[in-house]
Design a protein that fits this description.
5-stranded mixed β-sheet, 13 helices, binds adenosine-5'-triphosphate
Amino acid sequence: MENMMEKIVSLCKRRGFIYPGSEIYGGFQGFWDYGPLGVELKNNLKKEWWKTMVYNRDDVVGIDAAIIMNPQVWETSGHTAAFVDPLVECKKCHHRFKADKLQVQSCPECRGELTEPKKFNLLTEVYIGTVEDSKTRAYLRGEITQGVFVNFRNVVDSTRIKIPFGIAQIGKAFRNEITPGNFTFRSREFEQMELEYFIKPDEKNGQVIFEYWKQERMTWYLSLGFTKDKLRFREHAPDERAHYARKAEDIEFNSPFGWSEFEGIHHRGDFDLANHKLTYTDPEANSEFTPWVIETSGGVDRAALFLLINAYFEDGKRVVLKLHPKLAPYKAAVFPLLANKPELVKVAKRIYDDLRKDFYVAWDDRGNIGKRYFAQDEIGTPWCITVDFDTLKDDTVTVRDRDTAKQVRVKISELKKYFNQTLEDKK
Ligand code: ATP
């Protein structure tokens, strides 16, 4: 399975999904850059999330808050005090390790003696201002969540939304992780997609809504093509829960490095709004209360990584990324059978220009058809369209399906309908 990670990392670099950050300077641990195909995959994933969580619902609105906030936010939220990991340090090589993840008593690097666990804050500090000695210390946000809470009143006052309602957000978060690793799984800069859902404080209602969001989120991931047996829920033990959580369950993926979290569903109670001294007035009952929050907090990078792993197949010499067409960077690729036949190139170009008005489409006229198929399979392009000499006679093209390698003839004028129909069928 280690081998699997090497294959994914290598494919990501070779084909332009993910590169090591600042690579020409030797990289920078915990930072990654998304290439031309990676940005498409990530954007498609975020678009699907936003569609499901905001556009398809009446009770959710979106926001996009600033990454750097008044440092008071992090004092009040409890992060400066509690956003910590207990660490041990090797007395010999000075490497640091998370105390709770260590299974041995000595340093895993050099077998040296370890210190007692010490707390280490995960917030990344930044200094704001131009004059050296009067700069203000602030933080890059450690979770995007607080940007929602500090705008709770603004959203209530500027929209017609009423409890129960949610605020959705997608954005970057930063954590000074002690041990970044497993490719993008644990990075120091990453993206989150979160919903904070505000409800009336009520034990039973809280449980029902927590359960509802758990199921909604699992259903959504399955709709993206994750296979059922590779996903599971895992409930946090009381001593494992974050400082704000009354109840927490993770959605985990069976990855090459073991079952691993990529989304958390958290019952935050009134912890955040009470800390920020924010309340809600029910306009009908005219009663004031502090709402409770059920949160769904997903990692864009972890979901993208697990989708890539989930989609990776080897079929003889063929490597196929069986990404859901909704997520695939290119929806189709267009080829003229021969690059040196202007009559074929002309028709192929016309199809390419027409399709790209609606989909992101690739063009390839290099080498032979077999090589072009290989290249598109490896990046997950669901359909390849070839213009050949029959096209010139009957206006049909060959459409070849990535997963089955089966080919059908489709009329040029029916292509969009064909793709839309197949997309519909794969829902
Ligand atoms: P972990 O236990 O793995 O450190 P966490 O429980 O601290 O994760 P949360 O605070 O619940 O994570 O954050 C919600 C989501 O944000 C996670 O499920 C994950 O997808 C993403 N996430 C958190 N930390 C990182 C990271 N260092 N790199 C990439 N994604 C992350």
